[in-house]
TrEMBL record:
<keyword id="KW-0472">Membrane</keyword>
<dbReference type="InterPro" id="IPR050601">
    <property type="entry name" value="CPA3_antiporter_subunitC"/>
</dbReference>
<comment type="similarity">
    <text>Belongs to the CPA3 antiporters (TC 2.A.63) subunit C family.</text>
</comment>
<dbReference type="InterPro" id="IPR039428">
    <property type="entry name" value="NUOK/Mnh_C1-like"/>
</dbReference>
<keyword id="KW-1133">Transmembrane helix</keyword>
<feature type="region of interest" description="Disordered">
    <location>
        <begin position="110"/>
        <end position="153"/>
    </location>
</feature>
<keyword id="KW-0812">Transmembrane</keyword>
<feature type="transmembrane region" description="Helical">
    <location>
        <begin position="72"/>
        <end position="96"/>
    </location>
</feature>
<feature type="compositionally biased region" description="Acidic residues">
    <location>
        <begin position="124"/>
        <end position="142"/>
    </location>
</feature>
<feature type="transmembrane region" description="Helical">
    <location>
        <begin position="6"/>
        <end position="23"/>
    </location>
</feature>
<dbReference type="Pfam" id="PF00420">
    <property type="entry name" value="Oxidored_q2"/>
</dbReference>
<keyword id="KW-1003">Cell membrane</keyword>
<feature type="transmembrane region" description="Helical">
    <location>
        <begin position="30"/>
        <end position="52"/>
    </location>
</feature>
<protein>
    <submittedName>
        <fullName>Na(+)/H(+) antiporter subunit C</fullName>
    </submittedName>
</protein>
Length: 153
């Protein structure tokens, strides 16, 4: 089986550009990156699906084709397109909501996360370990053995 090298290069470029855009703080660019990665995955499924051939319908023939095309790849691509469009619509709705609330679609750093990152970690003492252990489990095997014979589950 011969693989089209040009198509694989295009898939790699679409994936790289999509990942770069998804790492941006701007939500509109993130959606564009999501769409690019979705299209790259669709092209990858199409490439891996094998060579083109006759339609997978009994009695239908194509011009000079001897094999039958794999319908699984086509079905997976259609499903991936629907899922990608649904996720994109949901993300665009979130972007619209954020834009109406803040008049900007850039995600800022959370002030509480920045404050926690600046604090030094607290040392763990023996007293803290005792408090973390907490009460014993009521469903442990030792506790279940103490029940009368008729109440065991």
């Amino acid at each position: 089986m011969m693989t089209n090298l040009g198509l694989l290069i295009i898939i790699g470029a679409l994936t790289a550009c999509g990942v770069y855009l998804m790492l941006e703080r701007n939500l509109t660019r993130m959606v564009l990156g999501l769409l690019l990665v979705g299209n790259a995955v669709n092209l990858l499924i199409l490439t891996v699906g094998g060579p083109s051939g006759n339609p997978p319908i009994i009695g239908r023939q194509s011009a000079g084709r001897t094999t039958v095309a794999d319908p699984l790849a086509q079905g997976m691509i259609l499903t991936a397109i629907v899922i990608t469009m649904g996720v994109a619509a949901f993300t665009l709705a979130l972007i619209y909501r954020m834009f109406t609330l803040e008049s900007d679609d850039v995600v800022d750093d959370d002030a509480e996360d920045a404050r926690v990152a600046q604090e030094p970690p607290e040392p763990v003492t023996d007293d803290d370990e005792d408090e973390l252990s907490g009460p014993t489990d009521e469903d442990s095997p030792a506790e279940l053995d103490a029940l009368p014979a008729g109440e065991k589950s």
